[in-house]
Amino acid sequence: MFSKLIALALTAGLTAIPKAHAHGGVLSIAIGDTWYWGWQPYDSPDGQTSIIRPWSSYNPITDATDPTLSCNDDGTSSALQLTAPITAGEEITAYWNNPWPHPYGPMLVYMAQCPGTTCTGVNSDTLEWFKIDQSGLINGTVYDGFWGDGLMIADNSSWTTTIPATIPSGPYLIRFETIALHSLPAQFYPECAQLDVTGGGSQAPASYELVTFPGAYSNTDPGLTIDIYSNAAQTETTYPIPGPPLYGSPPPSSTSSVASSSTGSATGTGTSSAPSSTPTGPTVPEYGQCGGSGWTGGTVCASPFTCQVVNDYYSQCL
Ligand SMILES: *[C@@H]1O[C@H](CO)[C@@H](O)[C@H](O)[C@H]1NC(C)=O
Ligand SMILES: *[C@@H]1O[C@H](CO)[C@@H](O)[C@H](O)[C@H]1NC(C)=O
Ligand SMILES: [Cu+2]
Questions:
Q1: Residue to mutate, 37, 156, 157, 176, ligand 2, most ligand atoms under 8 Å from C-beta
Q2: How many Å lie between the centroid of ligand 2 and the Cα of residue 158?
Q3: Are 103 and 200 in contact (CB under 8 A)?
Q4: Ligand 1 centre and the CA of 159: distance in Å?
Q5: What's this model's pTM, rounded to 2 decimal places?
Q6: CA nearest 188: which of 176, 201, 202, 206?
Q7: Which range has the worst mean pLDDT, 6-15, 208-217, 234-243, 253-262?
Q8: How far from chain centre, in Å, is Cα 72?
Q9: Minimum-distance ligand to the CA of 25?
Q10: Is 208 in the pocket of ligand 1 (CB under 6 A)?
Q11: Residue nearest ligand 2's atom 10 by CA
């Protein structure tokens, strides 16, 4: 028995495994009642039709400067590339291989508008991306807490996000990414799909919200070098999600509380009413945070600014 196990282990170790037995990626997408089958990375690309951009491997990317970081491939569309119609403000769900194996790390969703009338033929490496959704450490500690990745697994290994209602209509790529932190270097699993957004608004992403892939991350980002098994992790309850501030966030001078928020979604709710809680604390200056889930700081804005809701997690003096 013992020798049999050893032999088995040796065989597994020495045999090249062409189709990765772990890891994976986005295998399909749903928009409303429409189901879109994904790209099949281990089948011949000939004849494949999918809204998902071609991708080539179940293996993770482990370098923030890897040239394939935008869409897990060389950035090109397929010969028979499809595009899905979607309305701004509508939900879209990505499905990973089920169950997804890695519960520790953040979930992130980005979009990038393509020049012209279609993303087909546009290399994803040339685009500027903005982040529309993220979920980092949801509760507990970095060591044994509950993460965005765990939520994705708990939700049938899927992630649903909302196309912000405020983005301009046009052709976009959407990039779903799960980052795994169970080993270092951190593992990136990004896949992209082509969308044609209609019914959009007029709020183009600000320059401080736009990034490139590679470019958005550095191998020294605290959120990518974090050792979740360290002693420090056992008492650490905040996690800095990598990448730019969420679309719709305040300018960089006042984004620190956004960057460290555990979760959030740029659903394009825009400015609306002020928080209903009784104003307390020091006066908050223009662009300062004045409310949001878990906020315990000041809620009164310096005159003439008023506290406006950006999203569930962030209200700002504007
Ligand atoms: C952590 O968050 C998840 C998802 O919201 C929830 O199911 C779980 O009960 C939370 N755990 C604790 C300890 O709060
Ligand atoms: C769970 O995901 C699979 C695809 O991985 C899908 O076929 C199935 O309908 C989903 N189940 C639910 C309850 O959403
Ligand atoms: Cu893996």
A1: 156
A2: 8
A3: no
A4: 17
A5: 0.78
A6: 176
A7: 6-15
A8: 14
A9: 3
A10: no
A11: 156
**175 with 213: CB under 8 angstroms?**
yes
What tens digit of pLDDT does each residue of 166-216 get?
999 999 999 999 999 999 999 999 999 999 999 999 999 999 999 999 999
Q: Is the pLDDT of residue 300 over 90?
A: no
Query: Does the CB atom of residue 138 touch ligand 1 within 6 A?
Result: yes
Q: Which of 137, 138, 313 most suits a substitution to test ligand 1, by most atoms within 8 Å of the C-beta? A: 138
pLDDT digits (tens, 9 = 90+) for 109-145: 999 999 999 999 999 999 999 999 999 999 999 999 9
> Which residues are near ligand 3, the ion (C-beta closer than 5 Å)?
22-23
Minimum-distance ligand 1 atom for the alpha carbon of 139: 1
Query: Ligand 2, closest atom to CA 97?
Result: 5
Six-digit token string for 233: 């992790």
Residue type, 263: T
